[in-house]
Design brief:
About 0% of the residues lie in helices and about 45% in strands. It has about 230 residues and is mainly β. An eight-stranded antiparallel beta sheet has the order 6-7-8-9-10-14-13-12, with no helix packed on it. A five-stranded mixed beta sheet has the order 5-4-3-2-11, with no helix packed on it. A three-stranded antiparallel beta sheet has the order 1-15-16, with no helix packed on it.
Length: about 230
């Protein structure tokens, strides 16, 4: 027996009725770029409810350029980030970490803290990237787990941090009572533009006192509301 689920967020502070920004209208120009050593890859972070602050990320081999002050100039000395940790676990797995720290946009938004990018590759395939950032130093969000860099600015994925949140089921396309331990997994996220661009809310950002709920409509006329208590 399958059942239909309607998910309701039990905390208005995160799920306010904020109009989603039109990411297709975001300017993808870069004011000034360095001379790259290889073929660059591009990704664009936009910050805040209206997505007005733009932070470019450009991958150049083992280096990532980060527009820390969001002024469109990637040539500053502090904006060329080398991997702080590099590890080759075995012949089929390797990873590296870029400890970026704080973003201080020139438009006086932020500061946005604890910015870290972790990259990993399995079976010598292309790199996957995990982005971790505290928006305004408070709201923990994550993105990636996939290849996010594109070969041109025009194709660059846009990842929206600090934007309006939606709710989405995860891991299982269907929820069935035939399973021995049926599980419902959800996340709160902000949609981006292009593949692998969604930004997820870290469970640490939701105070323990706030409990999301799911409203379940069973086949027939029965319904119930359950609390979602586990976090990971």
């Amino acid at each position: 027996m399958k059942l239909w689920l309607a998910l309701w967020v039990g905390f208005a502070c995160f799920a306010g009725a904020v109009q989603a920004a039109d990411l297709s209208a975001v300017d993808k120009t870069i004011g000034k770029e360095p001379v790259y050593k290889g073929k660059p890859g591009y990704a664009l972070l936009v910050l805040g409810p209206e997505a007005k602050t733009r932070v470019w990320l450009v991958e150049d081999g083992e280096r990532i350029y980060v527009d820390r002050n969001a002024d469109g100039d990637l040539t500053g000395a502090a904006e060329a980030i080398e991997a702080s940790k590099v590890r080759v676990a075995n012949s089929s797995y390797r990873d590296k970490e870029y400890a970026i720290g704080t973003l201080t946009p020139f438009d006086n938004t932020g500061p946005h803290t604890d910015f870290k990018i972790t990259a990993y590759s399995e079976d010598n395939k292309q790199w996957n990237y995990v982005l971790k950032l505290k928006v305004n130093g408070k709201l923990q969000q994550f993105a990636g787990w996939k290849p996010i860099f594109k070969d041109t600015r025009e194709k660059a994925a846009i990842l929206h941090f600090g934007g309006p949140l939606s709710v989405q089921p995860l891991r299982f396309a269907e929820f069935s009572l035939k399973e021995k331990k049926p599980e419902l997994h959800i996340r709160f996220f902000t949609a981006g533009l292009a593949e692998f661009s969604a930004v997820s809310l870290g469970y640490e950002a939701v105070p323990p006192s706030i409990e999301p709920v799911a409203f379940i409509e069973w086949p027939g006329s029965r319904s119930e509301t359950v609390k979602l208590l586990s976090r990971c």
